[in-house]
UniProtKB/TrEMBL annotation, chain A:
Bias (Basic and acidic residues): 24-33
Region described as Disordered: spans on this chain: 1-51
Compositional bias (Polar residues): 10-20
Similarity field: Belongs to the OBAP family.
Cited InterPro entries: OBAP-like
Protein name, UniProt field: Uncharacterized protein
Upper lineage: Eukaryota, Viridiplantae, Streptophyta, Embryophyta, Tracheophyta
From TrEMBL, chain B:
Protein name: DUF1264 domain-containing protein
Organism in which the protein naturally occurs: Oryza brachyantha (malo sina)
Location of region: Disordered: 1-27
Similarity comment: Belongs to the OBAP family.
Pfam families found in the cross-reference section: DUF1264
């Protein structure tokens, strides 16, 4: 989530506090650096800033290298994922996708749309026909996209609705397999622990509204309260027609001490309305054969475990012929 | 339900023992046009941060005899942390088979021991000439390689293409790096194949020789490369559980 300002109040929702007091200037700096970074737990990745020599070298080497698979990435989809064992832990997921063919897409998932965001997982998006060929033990790992599309919450930032809907008609019928490696939502500064099987929204009531819409805390002067800011948005949209202007207004209000805390939701950041999109997409349909009962974790939940195993004997001759090309 | 070290039940999508392309119809012209249109208006900034293409080899942590050539497309989060999209080749049709995170020794030392056992060292892989930025002259990449030799990596494989999976099947699998000891040595024919294809000489006359003088890490944390000390591997299981939830599912 876009953290425009940090909590000053200790009773505010979880946010890792950095030591030291924050000056307004500091916050300005952080704000510009992490503009649109999507984790609400804004923990910085440890490490020194990239040295100029390193950056220059990468530019030089990058210029003479080929980036075959990366150049195939043609599409940015934004949606939400939650953990296979915990729906309450949800996050914004930015998919950067390439078609392997008409039925298979492979996506890198980042926690935001900007440079400097974290690569948190991968998703494979596969047509219904192919998913139905998968072994039954595999199907629970796959989730449906019908609700995400028809519910209006999956979108392609910046792509006009008419064009977007042409593709979402297809996505609506697909299944996805998502694995996250970096649990940024719990504040991990580095990718720790095991990969997690992720699920996607399948009905109303699941999406945490603070991810969708902006959250704002007005200062003590106005008594402390958190708004799910329909009113503020409505008010501001009368005067402001873009997110950047809206953000400037928020900054101004914060500057004079009227706002303590503001986090933009996805709808604000990308100027989309899930409700409006839902209406636009009402005509779309999901998988032709209906949602497979084993998909979506077979209706339960999924958890990963690490198991120590004996290593097979040194020579695995059986694999010798499986040389990978 | 599913384990990284178990073969999936036989279906059209899995296990013929050879590497097969994913099933599915050729990408339609309309999809291509939509993609081109999307690309024209979408910035795709995170993707443009991938500025390094490295090639090396990876071994499944549950069966070191299973080894694959891996192509890393690397983006840098800062001087000490890299994140890589890992593909099975550098062709446009390459499959996204996993993700690797790379951190410097200083960061690695700060991790808890339980976490460290999932990571592998890069010193041997680099010094042996296995890890190389494809197409970049050694003189230009040597400083980056010297840095890389002191790093640790954590690589998750999500598509076991070497066992012939036509689609990504099963649980994610941990992978490790080649080492100077069996059963974790890189297989010679695999290295030879890569070297011939990219006209790389990773032998003692080539990259390996050129990197002899490269500084080695003063020590490699014994918690990394778990199999070398413990002789055991790791597999990942996906099991059914109750989901914590605030609304019905699905």
């Amino acid at each position: 989530m876009d953290k425009v300002a940090h909590h000053k109040n200790s009773s505010s929702p979880a946010s890792i506090q950095h030591p030291g007091t924050r000056t307004y200037e500091n916050r300005e700096r952080e704000r510009s650096r992490s503009s649109m970074a999507s984790s609400c737990h804004e923990v910085e990745v440890p490490g020194k800033p990239t040295e100029t020599g390193t950056a220059l070298l990468e530019t030089a080497t990058g210029a003479i290298q080929g980036f075959g698979p990366v150049n195939q990435i043609h599409q940015h989809l934004c949606a939400f994922h939650f953990y296979g064992d915990d729906m309450t832990r949800q996050g914004e997921a930015h998919h950067f996708c390439a078609h392997l063919n008409e039925d298979v897409r492979q996506c890198l998932i980042f926690d935001g749309p900007d440079a400097g965001v974290r690569l948190i997982g991968v998703e494979y998006i596969v047509s219904e026909a192919l998913v139905l060929t998968l072994p039954d033990g595999e199907k629970p790992l796959w989730h449906t996209h019908e609700f995400e599309v028809k519910g209006g919450v999956l979108f392609m930032p910046g792509v006009p609705g008419v064009v977007e809907r042409r593709d979402l008609e297809k996505v609506c019928k697909t299944y996805g397999k998502t694995i996250h490696f970096w649990q940024v939502d719990r504040g991990d500064a580095l990718p720790l622990g095991l990969p997690q099987i992720m699920m996607a929204l399948t009905r109303d009531g699941q999406l945490r509204q603070d991810l969708a819409k902006c959250t704002c805390t007005l200062s003590q002067k106005f008594k402390f309260f958190i708004l799910n800011l329909e009113n503020f948005r409505a008010f501001s949209s009368k005067f402001l027609n873009s997110y950047s202007l809206f953000k400037r207004l928020v900054n101004e209000l914060e500057g004079v001490g009227f706002i303590d805390f503001y986090v933009a939701g996805v709808e604000d950041k990308f100027s989309v309305s899930f409700q409006k999109e839902r209406e636009n997409r009402a005509y779309m349909s999901g998988p032709d054969h209906g949602i497979h009962p084993l998909a979506n974790a077979a209706g339960k939940g999924l958890k990963t475990h690490l198991r120590e195993v004996d290593l097979p004997a040194t020579t695995t001759a059986a694999h010798a012929g499986r040389v990978f090309t | 339900m599913s384990s990284s070290d178990q073969n999936p039940a036989p279906t059209p999508a899995c296990g013929t023992g050879t590497s097969v392309p994913p099933p599915g119809k050729a990408t339609t012209v309309s999809s291509q046009l939509l993609d081109m249109g999307a690309q024209a208006v979408q910035a795709l900034k995170p993707v443009h941060q991938m500025k390094q293409h490295a090639c090396s080899f990876a071994l499944y942590a549950h069966d070191l005899g299973r080894q694959v050539e891996v192509h890393h497309f690397v983006s840098r989060l800062n001087q000490d942390v890299l994140q890589c999209a890992v593909y099975d080749s550098d062709r446009p049709s390459a499959r996204l088979i996993g993700v690797e995170y790379i951190v410097t020794d200083a960061i690695f030392e700060s991790l808890p021991p339980e976490e460290q056992k999932l990571w592998h060292s890069h010193a041997y892989e680099v010094k042996a000439g296995l890890w190389t930025d494809v197409g970049v002259p050694e003189a230009l990449q040597s400083s980056e390689m010297a840095r890389m030799a002191k790093t640790y990596g954590k690589l998750w494989c999500t598509w076991q293409v070497d066992r012939g999976d036509a689609l990504p099947l099963g649980a994610p699998a941990l992978m490790v790096s080649p080492q100077a000891a069996e059963p974790g040595r890189g297989r010679a024919e695999l290295v030879r194949g890569r070297d011939e294809r990219y006209r790389i000489d990773s032998s003692a006359q080539g990259l390996k020789g050129a990197r002899v003088e490269m500084d080695e890490p003063e020590w490699i944390n014994p918690n990394a490369d778990y199999w070398r000390v413990h002789g055991k591997g790791f597999a990942v299981d996906v099991a059914a559980t109750e989901m914590k939830r605030h609304a019905p599912f699905p």
